[in-house]
Design a protein that fits this description.
Strand content: 35-45%
Keywords: DNA replication, DNA-binding, Metal-binding, Nucleus, Zinc, Zinc-finger
Largest sheet: 8 strands, mixed
Structural class: alpha+beta
Helix content: 10-25%
Protein name: Replication protein A subunit
Oligomer: single chain
Number of helices: 13
Distance between the termini: 47 Å
CATH class of the largest domain: Mainly Beta
CATH topology of the largest domain: OB fold (Dihydrolipoamide Acetyltransferase, E2P)
GO molecular function: DNA binding; zinc ion binding
Radius of gyration: 36 Å
Organism: Elysia chlorotica
Main location: nucleus
Shape: elongated
CATH superfamily of the largest domain: Nucleic acid-binding proteins
CATH architecture of the largest domain: Beta Barrel
Amino acid sequence: MELSTGIILEILNGATPEKPTFQVINAKKIESSNTVDRYRLLLSDGEYVYSHVMLAAQLNKMWENNEVPNMSVIEATRYLCNKLQGDKRVIILLDLKVLASGSDVKCKLGNPTQLNPNSIPTSTPKPAMDSGINEQKAAVFKPQNNNNTALSTGNTTVQQTHQVNSLEKKSLTPGTPNSRVHSIASLTPYQNRWRIRARVTMKSNIRTWSNSKGEGKLFNCNLLDDSGEIRMTGFKEQVDKFYDMLELNKVYYISRCTLKTANKQYSNLNNDYEMTMNPETVIEPCNDDSDLPVISFDFVKLSELEQCKPPTSVDVIGVVKVCNDVNSVVGRQSQKEILKRDLQIVDQSGLAVSLTLWGDEANKFDGQGFPIVAVKGARLSDFNGRSLSVSGSSQLIVNPDTKEAHVLRGWFESGGRDQNFSSYQSEGGSGGGQSSNWKTFLQVKSENLGQGEKADYYTAKGTVVFVKKDNCMYQACPTADCNKKVVDLGNGQYRCEKCCREFPNHKWRMILSCNVADHTDNQWITCFQDSAEGMLGMKADELGQLRETDEMRFDQVLQDALFKSYIFRMRAKVETYNDESRLKTVCVAANNVDWKEYGNQLISQIAQLGI
DNA sequence: CCCCCCCC
């Protein structure tokens, strides 16, 4: 256990040694108009005690949990020294580790003297050879604690080495101190002098707002360097000053923004802080940008969206196969009219997915010539299975000059455009809003599908093992939209009670009860007209004729329907008759198995097992 | 100082 003797003075004079150790003599909560409590510490390095020490608010809980009782020896893992007005200097502890609890140390180490914050002596830089002097100092230093805590001095040589290292890490360019460039990851609200060099990886449109607090305009952009990303927002005057100057993908020197804690609710960037431009903000273009990372995409194939759990953000790239006209909707909450345009994008995975653009971006989008769109951070929802939207934090790039885009273009022009594409949209219309939700029949039971207030939709591959012949079809009202069963009046007339009319004819409607099996279980399902006709390979009217004229052939049609496999889309809901409840499963669609697609589905299910 | 990301 060592205190970094004399280190406080060096830090106050601008040194930035790594991981200095201190003793916390005292801590007190300061009164603040701010909603956040702040702690002020009395910190000792064994030689001096300094009182202008603040704790970054995120460390408050260590004190609130009594993890750092007075007299604890700590290592300052991250810290800053800021100059305030009047040349006052304050040390801010950003991150720390307790090396020895005050409950063990119990007393003040060494015999430190109080530093007067208003007259801090300049520490003369000590050359490496000077360490002997330091050791002399150490000899003078008398630890009062004589238990097992041996105290020694900080080693100046080592400290200076650390200092050089840490400056190297911060890309200190030889020359004036002003040429120092900070990394984005090092920015905190506790610094007041910094400059970053960063690439613009997202630039929003200019938006306006109007609320009870006022109105104005703003934009934001994301900045990237090799240490991380940060969001930057500009309001009003700063919009006028910097919006046109900041270009997507270009690199700038940026300084003097206001740092604040990021509201994670609205930011998908990996940074605890974000920054706001202010009247002091300086932004200068930087032309030498080759060393900085460029906007990077982590593209998800459109077929892989199935495995993404909405709502989430994804990077996607696709060819705009369909570009719908721009139209407008009224926002449910805002009650404002918003322009929108739906695109349908496709890729080599054979999927077509809807991508919605909003506002100005929707208005200005030109869908001519099947453009390629890449979206960083598109919002994925489960509407119609899967849908994408370009949200405020997304960046849309049209016809990017990237390898992925060229490969995609090549595929599209050499036959991809003529391909048939699958969609996540559930067949049969009424199952919207769900993903395909693949289930086995055993899962349907074990997961209690259909027990909720709303019906559950799921997709299953199954084989027809039994078809009920009785009551599989009925005579229905011939009116186009009426499927009501008619009464055969026996005189060649059929009466529909719903339409209150008699007709000389009727149509045939089907209600086919089938038992369908997969490798786990079986399930009784009800198939109405369209799916039943498909499974029997015959139109209901023809089948009705057959039933009346040639029962053997009719039986054969039902027989031939057995042991065929389909991809079933089901609607499951528990229904209760006479106090008896049972799961009713309606087949919304029965599609022939596309073995390639189904194989891919199985592959992705296997992938989801994470084996 | 925004922070809605909309609608079907």
